[in-house]
Amino acid sequence: MELLVxxxxxxxxVVAYSFYSFTVFFSLFSIILYLLRLTKxxxxxxxxxxxxxxxxxxxxxxxxxxxxxxxxxxxxxTIHIHVLNNTITANPDNVExxxxxxxxxxxxxxxxxxxxxxxLGDGIFNVDGEGWRFQRKxxxxxxxxxxxxxxxxxxxxxxxxxxxxxxxxxxTTSGAxxxxxxxxxxxxxDNICRFSFGLDPGCLEMSLSDSNFAAAFDLATRLSAQxxxxxSPLVWKIKRAFNLGSEKDLSEAIKxxxxxxxxxxxxxxxxxxxxxxxxxxxxxxxFMHSVDDDxxxxxxxxxxxxxxxxxxxxxxxxxxxLIMINxxxxxxIRSESDRVLGSSSSEPATFEQMREMHYLQAxxxxxxxxxxxxxxxxxxxxxxxxxxxxxxxxxxTRVTYHPYAMGRMESIxxxxxMRFRPERWLQSDGVFKPANPFKYPVFHAGPRICLxxxxxxxxxxxxxxxxxxxxxxxxxxxxxxxxxxxxxxTTFRGGLPVRISxxxxxx
Length: 507
Ligand code: HEM
Known about the structure:
- A hairpin with a 5-residue loop joins strand 5 and strand 6.
- The strands form 4 sheets. The protein has a 4-stranded mixed beta sheet with strand order 1-2-7-4, with helices on both faces. It has a 3-stranded antiparallel beta sheet with strand order 3-11-8.
- The protein has a domain at about 110-370 and about 430-500: CATH 1.10.630.10.
- The chain has helices spanning about 10-40, 45-50, 65-70, 90-100, 110-120, 130-145, 145-175, 180-195, 210-225, 235-240, 245-275, 285-290, 295-325, 325-340, 350-355, 360-370, 405, 410-415, 455-470, and strands at about 80, 85-90, 175-180, 375-380, 385, 390-395, 400, 470-475, 485, 490, 495-500.
- The chain has about 500 residues and is α+β, with helices and mostly antiparallel strands.
- Helix 7 (about 145-175) packs parallel to helix 19, helix 13 (about 295-325) packs across helix 16 and helix 16 packs across helix 19.
- Protoporphyrin IX containing FE (HEM) binds near residues 124, 374 and 443.
- It comes from Kalanchoe fedtschenkoi.
- Keywords: Heme, Iron, Membrane, Metal-binding, Monooxygenase, Oxidoreductase, Transmembrane, Transmembrane helix.
- GO terms for molecular function: heme binding; iron ion binding; monooxygenase activity; oxidoreductase activity, acting on paired donors, with incorporation or reduction of molecular oxygen.
C-alpha cells in the first residue's frame, strides 16, 4: 500500500493539504450533526417532533403563537420542550417565584452567557453576581435620578421636533411608502446614544441611507438568538470553532459592532477631556469614572444600545400596527389630547401634560400586552427546584417565562384577551392602573426589573402623540398578518410599510 507523502515545501501541496483538512473537518461536522439528529429525537413526543421538523409552522405564523397555543392547553400554563430541555411558563405564580422569591436559584447561568457572550460580553444583560450588581447600581443611579428625567425628555422632544416630524412631513408630499419600523429604529438609536453616551449619531438625518452598523447589529442579535434555538449548543460551537456558515456571519457582524462601540468610547474620551466634568451627566461618563477597561466599557455600550434601540422601536412599530387596525383607538387618543392640549394647539406636550394622558398610556401598555418587545426571557436553574404549580425543574434546566403567551391568556385577561382594548387599563375614574408585574412581566419584575421602563414609556407616548396629532397613517399592505423575524426583540418581518398624509385639522 502506498503512503500519502505530503511535500510541504510546494505551494500546491499546501493547497491540497488545506483542502484535505477541510474535507475531514467537514465530514466530522456532518457526522456530529447526523448523530445529534439521531440522538435528540430520543424524545419522540408530538411536541418535540413538531419542533424539530418545524411542522408547527403549517398552523401558526410564529413560534411564539404555537407556544401560546400549547401553554393555553396546559392546565398549569406550563409546558416542557424536551429536546431543548426548556420549561416554558405563563403562570404568574411561577414567574414571581423565579424572578423574585427564589431569584438566586434562577440566574442567567452559563449557557445563556455563552450563547450571548460574543455579542454582549460582560454587559448587564449577560451577567449575574457582582458584575450585575455593580452595573445595576451605576445604571440605576443614572436612570433613577429626577434630573435625568428632564434631560431625557428634552432629548426626545428635540429629536421629534427637529428630525422625526420634518422627515415624515417630507414623505407626505412625495406620497412614498415608508417603513415605520426602520424610522423608529433610527429614532431610538439616536435617542439612546444621545441619552446614554452623550453622542449624536444622527441616524434620522442621514437621508435614510442604509446603515452598515444597523444591519450588523440586527444580524448579530438575530444570529445570537438563533443559537438558543438549536437542540444542542454543540452545533453552533462547532460551527464557531471552524468559522462556518451563520457563525462566520455572526463573527463578522460582531466585528463591526465592536468597531462602532470602540469609536463611541474613543469619541467620548476625547470629548470628556475638552468639557467640564459637571456637564457630563450621561451614563457612559458615569461608568468611565469607575471603569478603565475598554473591553468592559464596550460591553456596557453594546448592552445599552440593545436595551434602548430595539425595544422602544419595537413597541412603537407594534403600536402603529395596532392603531391602523383599530382606528377607534386612534380617535380616542386624539380626543384625549385635544382635551389636555387644546384642539388647536401645535405645541408639543409638556412632561406634566403627558402624565395626564391616561388613555394614551393605556394604549401603550395594551400594545405591549399583545406584542411585547421581549417575547420571552430565560434563566437556568442552579439547583433542583419545584415551581409553585408543582413542575419539577432539575439543575441546568432552562426555565422561560413568556410575556407574549401571558398577554394572550384568558385566565389572566378574561375572555376578550385577544382584543386590543386599552380601556382594560383604566379605572372607573379614567385613571391608568398598572397590572401586577408577575402577570404582566413585559419589563421583567423583581430585582432585575427593567431600568429603562419610565424612559421607554415616556418616549413611546411622546412619539405616538406627536405623530397621531399631525399625521394619518394607512397600512400600505392592509390585512397583512404580523410575522416576526427571529431575534432578541420583536421585529416585524418586512417592516411596517405605511402611507402617511398630513391631517387636515386646522392647528
Ligand atoms: C419598551 C421598552 C422596553 C422593554 C419592553 C424592556 C424590557 C426589559 C426586560 C424584559 C428586561 C429583562 C431582561 C433580562 O432578563 O435580561 C429589561 C432589562 C433592562 N432594561 Fe429594559 N426594556 C425596555 C426599554 C429599556 C430602555 C429604554 C432602557 C435604557 C435606557 C432599558 C434598560 C434596561 C436595563 C439596564 C436592564 C437590565 C436590568 C438588570 O438586569 O438588572 N430598557 N428590560
